[in-house]
Amino acid sequence: MRQRWLVIESEARKESDLKQLEKLLTKKYTHAQCQLRKLCQQEFACAEDPFNPAKLLESQLPFHQLACKD
Which of these, 9, 44, 64, 67, could form a disulfide with 49 (CB 3.0-4.6 Å)? Predict the structure, then answer.
């Protein structure tokens, strides 16, 4: 069976998709800030201790990366 496909792009659909993406990113950013704030409030025995929980947190954040600041 032979098929023909037609792809139609619309500016309204594009704007709607971008608005949904922006809303999702804002939600994920807020969640990431909350999780990072919780991590920062913890007390650690030495300077190396927070790296493993930070790496674990970063692996759970698909849209964000954590960077070490001196």
Answer: 44
